[in-house]
Amino acid sequence: MICLVLTVPVFVTSESVMGWFGYSLDLPGLPWVAPVLGSVVFFYGGWPFLVGAVREIRDRAPGMMLLISLAIVVAFLASLASSVGLLDLEFWWELATLVTIMLLGHWQEMKAIGRARGALAALAALLPDEAERVAPDGTTQRVPLSELRVGDVVLVRPGARVPADGHVLEGATELDESMITGESRPVPRTVGDRVVAGTVATDSAIRVRVDALGEDTALAGIQRMVAQAQQAGGRAQDLADRFAALLFYVAVGAAMITFVVWQLLGQVDQAIVRPVTVLVIACPHALGLAIPLVIALSTAVAARAGILVKDRLALERMRTVDAVLFDKTGTLTTGIHTVTAVAGADGTSEDEVLRLAAGVEADSEHPLARAIVAAARGRTQPAAASEFRSLPGRGVQATINGSRYAVGGPTLLGEWNATVPAELARAAEEWSARGASVLYLAQVDTRPRIVGALALEDEVRPEARQAIEELRRLGVKKIAMITGDARPVAEAVAADLGFRPGVDEIFAEVLPADKDDKVAELQARGLTVAMVGDGVNDAPALARADIGIAIGAGTDVAMESAGVVLASSDPRAVTGAIRLSQASYRKMIQNLVWAAGYNVVAIPVAAGVLAWAGVALSPAVAAVLMSASTIIVALNAQLLRRATYGRGAVRRRRTGTTSPSARPRPT
User: Which candidate in 165, 176, 241, 327 is catalytic?
Assistant: First the structure.
C-alpha cells in the first residue's frame, strides 16, 4: 500500500504519460518527484525481490524473483542515468508500477504461510486454562495447567474438558471423544479406564489421576502429526516460476546478443538502447499477474458461494482430484443423533413410548436425551416427571404419575435381569445391525417391565447423497469414507449414501494417526486425494492430503489445517470447487501462454531484427506494449466471472437459482 501511494505521483508526473494523455503539469520540483519517489519504491518495495534474486542465484535456480530483479535493476539504473543526463531514457513510472504490482502478487502468495501456526494454536486451545486439583484432604483448588504434575488427581465436572491424559480414579461418566477419535457416540468411562486430554465429560463428574502432561499427551501427538503432515505436503511449484526461469534465460541471452551485434555494427547508441528495450519488454508484468490475478478472482467468486480458499494453490490442485475422502461424523452426517424408530411392547403406542421416555430424559443434558425430547415434542407432549436421577454410564430414572420409569441401554437391562419382549428384541437387532444406538424404556416399580425401545442414529445429510453423485459425474474415480465409528455404523451410512461395492472404500474404527496413514495410503496408489472433514481428529489428514477441505461447522483446528473451507457446511460445495478449479486453470494457462508468447514475438522486434525494414521499438513504446500485455491478461482473467456463472460452476446469476454446489437448500 505504501508503494501504491508512492507510485501514483511517479506515474502522473511522467513525461511519457503526460504525452500519451495530452496534459502537462508545472509544479515546483517536478523533475525530482519521479527520481526521489521511484528510488524509494525501488529500495523499499523491491527489497523482497532483490533478496529473492540473491537466493535464486545462490541456489542456481533462476525464476520469477531473479527476472523481476533484473527488470527493476535495469529500469532503475537507466532511469538514474537519464536523470543525471547520461542517457535519454525514462523508466521511473515503469519501475514503480512493476514493483507495486509484483508486491501485490507476492503478498497473495505469502498469506498462506501462517496456516501451520494457526492449526497448532487451535489444537492447543482445546485444553482448558485451569484444572481442579484434588488435595489429599479431598478439597479442590483451581490451578493453571503448568502447575499440574504426573500423579496429581483432578476433578472433571460435567461439561468440562479433561485437562491431561490419565485414568479414572473415581466415578463414571460418558465422554464426548468425537473431536479426538471421531466416535460419534459418547463413550462410557469408569474406574480404571484411560481418558484423553481435550475430551468432554457429558453427564457426571469423575476424578482422574494424571499420567501424561504437555508434549506427552495424545493431543500433543496430534499436534506433531499436523506439523509433520504440513511440512511433508510441500507447495506445488508455481507454473509461473517455470515460465519465468525460461524467460530469464531468453531475455538475458537476447539482451547480450543484441548488445554484441549492435557493437559490431558500430552503433554504440543502439547497443545501449536495444538491450534496455529488450529487458523492458521482457519485464514480467503479465507473467507475474497471470496466476495471482486468476486466483484472486476465482477465490472471490468462490467466497460468494460459501467456498473459502485459504491456500492459493489449493484451488488450482482441485481440478486434479482422483479420490475424495470424506470424514463421516459431522461431514456426511449432521453429527447430531435423532430418533429414527420407536417400538412399543404389549400394545403400547409409539407416541406413548416417546412421551414417557421424553419425560424421564427431560432433565438430562446427555446428547441422546436431547434427541429423545426433541423427537417427542414433534409428535406429543413429554410427560411431567419428578425425582430425576442419573445413573452414570447406564441411563436415567424419574417418576411419572407415581410410577418409576428408566431409560437405558443393554447394560442397565443386565442389572435388572429384565427380559426384552420378542417383538422388541427383533426390532432392536435390526436397528443395531445398521449401527443405531438402542435405548429401552422400562417401568421399574417392582419387577422391571420393558415398555418400549427407541433407535437413535447420526442423521445422514440429505445433500451428501447428491454431492457423491455429482463427484462421480465430474470423473472422480474413488469416493471414500473414514470414521472412528464401528464398522456396522459406517457400512449403514455408506449404503444410505449409495457407495459402490468394490469401487468406493470404507475405513472404519480409525484412530487419528490411522486417518493420516489412510490418506498417505491412497496417495501411494497414485491418487490425488481431497480430504473433507470437520474435527480435530481430521486435522493431520487434512494437512497431509493434496487438498484439505474443512466444512464450516467444524473446529478451528480443521479449518486452519485445510486449504479450502466450506462455509455453508454443504458437502455439495466440493463439486463447485472442482468446477471452479477447472475454469480458473483454463484462464491461468491462457494467460501464461499469452504472457510468454507475447515475449517470443516482442523480444526479437525489440532487439532490432526488423530495423532494416524501418521497424524499431523505442524503450517507451516497449513499455507501452508491455503494459498492453498486462491489460490483456487482466481482462482475460475478468472473463472468469462470466465463464464461471455461465457454466453453472457456482451460481446461476440470471435465474437466481443455486446449483448443487452452492449453499444448501432447505431439507
Answer: 327
